[in-house]
Amino acid sequence: MELPAIPVVILDVIHKIEPLLDIQLLMHPPVVHFIIALPMVVLLLEFINVFTKKRTIGVISFLLLILVSIAAVAAYLTGTVDGKEAYPLLSEIAQSELKEHKLLGTYLMLASVIVLFFKLLSSLVSRGLMKALYILILLLFIAGILNQGKEGGKLVYTYGVNVKKVLELDNELDDIKEELEELEEENKPELVSEEETSSIESTGVEVIEKQNHTAKIDAVKVPVPVTEKVEEKIAVEVIPQVAMTPSVATH
């Protein structure tokens, strides 16, 4: 999603101011508190002014909205500096989330000027409809700011954006990966020999099993003598002898 031509021109002007400010790293978290708190204070003052109808409260809310616009620009610039530092260290999903966060922040920065403009119109045009429209735009702006704060917290607590400990762990993980790659390169010949040895052993086992299987088959083919048939054959071939009856003497 791309920005229209006019916001792009405004952003170019803002980016030209950035080098002159010398923005330090990790200034985004303290700045965003202002852009979250100030609009809610303005909304509270506007609700109070509905009943009191004092010009002083209207002037104070207008001045606070000017501070909101300044804080929005500061949040954008500091977020840009922090985002550039964090972006190369993030995963693809986190980088996509960071881009969306920056895009919404850009629109909110421009919306702060719109809120200020409608505040000015509501002060010049003393009509209830214009006042109601201004309050509605202020509410939508606050909703966007709260959602932006939620997404910013997600970037920090889920993806570890600009968290020092996460950066240290990431560097340690890179060092461990490099050491592991070096060890794999050094032990590569040994790993190959181990693979060849295991292949030879498995081949030898297969040969032995094949020989045992062949021996079993040969053993089954050898005829086993049947002793019962041999004994029967011997008994048939025996020649029977005639029994001699004793002669009895007669007188």
Short recap of the structure:
By secondary structure, the protein is mainly alpha-helical. The chain has a domain at 5-162.
Layout of helices and strands, plus pairs?
Blueprint: H1 5-21, H2 28-52, H3 55-86, H4 92-124, H5 128-157, H6 164-186, H7 188-221, H8 227-237
Helix pairs in contact: 2-3, 2-5, 3-4, 4-5
Characteristics:
single chain, 251 residues, mainly alpha, elongated
Structural class category: mainly alpha
- Total count of strands: 0
Percentage of residues assigned to helices: over 70%
Over all CA atoms, what is the radius of gyration? 48 Å
Largest sheet data:
none
Portion of residues in beta strands equals under 5%
User: What is the overall shape?
Assistant: elongated
Distance between the termini: 152 Å
Global mean pLDDT: 77
Task: Specify the number of helices.
Answer: 8
Poorly predicted segments: 238-251
Order of H and E elements: HHHHHHHH
